[in-house]
Amino acid sequence: MIEIKQLTKSFGDRTVLQGIDAVFETGKTNLIIGQSGSGKTVLMNDLVGLLEPTSGQILYDGRDFVTMDKRQRILLRREMGMTFQGSALFDSLNVLENVRFPLDMFSSMSSRERDRRAMECIERVNLKGAETKYPDEISGGMQKRVAIARAIVLNPKYLFCDEPNSGLDPKTSLVIDRLLSDITHDYGITTIINTHDMNSVMGIGEKIIFIYQGHKEWEGTKDQVMDAKNKRLNDFVFASDLFRKVRKAELDEDNNK
């Protein structure tokens, strides 16, 4: 579990996050949603230590990341896995080498053990047979799966995914969503996904936090989104034609009962 208390982040005179409280639950897909510029990316960067919060607490199973010294942070980061918006694979390494990279950096395993563990993760994301291919030889969706395999190769307790469906077609996005959901439940990981994809929200959003202009505006589950009374959330959710049509159909059905 990750808990944040009164988290605030400012850049000079500009406050980007203001007094955010939230709990990201273990074994669930926790989604952070919001418009561009809302502060959700800054929030994730604070969580993983790429940025330092101005004030507040970030508790990893009770351990405050903010007050840790350098050594403690390094140890905690080994419990984290992360996928980036652009996959961030090494072009000069093949799939197996990309997935094995964290093991080469941080593991005391033998070379054979590292290969075996990397292959386990490659198979887990359904890429067996692609291990000798290079990033420019595989599709964008496959690159995302390689990034997920690399993120879980060290058996993380916490998994962070920044816009995992960015640049993907709807069908491939569903594959990535299902994969992240299955991995979260199978391994009991605390997964946090930063997204603006409403299909992801409605598909795998077990815990959803909506950020608006640096504040936590709403939180709930995918089952509560459609009936939420928060106008700003509704404006965000029903911005797409698809969800406006879904909502209209639901209201028409209720009126005809």
From TrEMBL:
Gene3D superfamilies hit by this protein: P-loop containing nucleotide triphosphate hydrolases
Gene Ontology terms for molecular function: ATP binding
Keyword list, A-Z: ATP-binding, Nucleotide-binding, Transport
UniProt-listed Pfam families: ABC_tran
Domain ABC transporter: from-to ranges: 2-238
Keyword Metal-binding in record: no
InterPro entries: AAA+_ATPase, ABC_transporter-like_ATP-bd, ABC_transporter-like_CS, P-loop_NTPase
Protein name: ATP-binding cassette domain-containing protein
Protein source organism: Hallella faecis
